[in-house]
Design a protein that fits this description.
Number of strands: 14
Helix content: 25-40%
Structural class: alpha/beta
Distance between the termini: 11 Å
Largest sheet: 8 strands, mixed
Oligomer: single chain
């Protein structure tokens, strides 16, 4: 049982290669006390935007100018929080929760960070070269600032470690795969966990009773098949490149495309990596990765934008159909993240024609804009179609708080 007098504030850090996103929350009542972003770290044009929420009438603050590194960024964050009476030295701060993108197979749950844990996260850098190094930098910096405070890693991959081997294994030589940790890990796990659980609540059921297909559609995009609260398949793989068409990533493609580009086009491995991760997907197809702009162009008669949209939707439908087959029975489809929550035309197009699978969208309900979870399917539909805003920071805070309290009780 949680001690009602124990500290319950959690600072959630999401450290990128040149940015730090943060939120300070009270995990006991889900109150947000402050949110902010430090961007363009190590540049002359660095910027910190801080929004205090604990004090009524407190205004958003912004500071610009060079911030040399992540250590300087977190010190600046600490100064902003201190100005609001929420400093890192507060006795009400229970822990710092860190988003870590890749936890491999070892980390299936949120984990208190020790030197051994940090070393294992470092060993996973080869399978997450764009993400884990930045996460590690944030952890080291936070530990240096508050070495006495529990630091907890919450892994994007953890929710997907329940996938059966048939879903997680690639059909390549087993010894080679095992030697180099090549398998499907999946990502956006905190979002898929949160949204699948909230969808069950929306249906008035326990998560163990519900089968959900979650569509996390942002600039990065992934789908998951969740049976009774447990992930059994997901669209991203060894890296976040596999699966759906994304803002700048290709998603699924024939692996021989890589060999062709190297042998015939003379592209380097690094050049192909950059092409598939940064110059493909929607931006590669039509020059835009903002779905609002793509829809504006379609309305203006732009055929290139129309084709990009159609390819995006075609891939979504393929995964919807595949996960219906994987789950056998589907109770709900949940749209989430920036595109999933806000782009009604995407939701309408993705579900259109799937009536035989029990899915339909009510045009009026779909057109409603809201920050609340909601059903957008007609009452007669066998499968509920929902819009469920994700809250990865809250999920990280809850998981961090639970770990800290368990450690305290033991």
């Amino acid at each position: 049982m949680t001690n009602p007098t124990a500290p319950s504030r959690i600072l959630v850090l999401n450290s990128g290669s040149s940015s730090v996103k943060y939120q300070l929350l009270d995990a006991r009542d889900d109150t947000r006390l402050a949110v902010g972003l430090v961007e363009r770290i190590s540049e002359e044009t660095s910027r910190l935007v801080h929004t205090p929420l604990a004090r009524e009438g407190a205004e958003r603050r912004e500071r610009t100018g060079p911030i040399a590194d992540h250590a300087a960024a977190l010190k600046a964050v600490a100064e902003e929080l201190t100005q609001d009476g929420l400093g890192l030295d507060s006795p009400e701060l229970a822990a710092i929760g860190h988003r870590v993108v890749h936890g491999g197979l070892r980390f299936t749950q949120p984990t208190v960070i020790t030197d051994e844990v940090l070393a294992e996260i470092e060993r996973l850098v080869p399978v997450a070269p764009l993400h884990n190094p930045a996460n590690i930098t944030g952890i080291r910096t936070a530990r240096a600032l508050r070495p006495d405070l529990p630091q907890v890693a919450v892994f994007d991959t953890a929710f997907h470690t329940t996938m059966p081997e048939a879903a997680a294994r690639y059909a390549i030589d087993v010894d080679t795969a095992d030697a180099h940790r090549i398998r499907r890990y999946g990502f956006h796990g905190t979002s898929h966990a949160y949204v699948s659980r909230r969808t069950a609540e929306l249906l008035g059921k326990d998560p163990s009773e519900v089968n959900v297909i979650v569509l996390h559609l942002g600039n990065g995009a992934s789908a998951s098949a969740v049976r009774g609260g447990v992930c059994v398949d997901t669209s991203m793989g060894l890296t976040p490149l596999e699966g759906l068409v994304m803002g700048t990533r290709s998603g699924d493609l024939d692996p021989a495309v890589i060999f062709h580009l190297h042998r015939v086009a003379g592209m380097s491995v690094d050049g192909i990596d950059a092409l598939l991760n940064k110059k493909s997907g929607l931006i590669g197809l039509c020059g835009d990765n903002d779905m609002r702009e793509i829809r504006r162009r379609i309305d203006a008669g732009d055929e290139r934008a129309r084709l990009a949209f159609d390819i995006y939707i075609h891939r979504l439908k393929k995964y919807l159909g595949a996960y219906c087959a994987v789950l056998g029975r589907v109770d709900a489809v949940a749209f989430t993240a920036g595109v999933g929550e806000n782009a009604a035309p995407v939701r309408e197009a993705a579900i259109a024609g799937l009536e035989e699978l029990g899915m339909a969208v009510d045009a009026e309900l779909n057109a409603v804009r809201s920050d609340e979870p909601r059903i957008i399917s007609p009452s007669y539909a066998r499968v509920a179609v929902a819009v469920v805003p994700t809250d990865e920071e809250l999920e990280i805070a809850h998981q961090t708080f639970a770990v800290v309290n368990t450690a305290t009780e033991n």
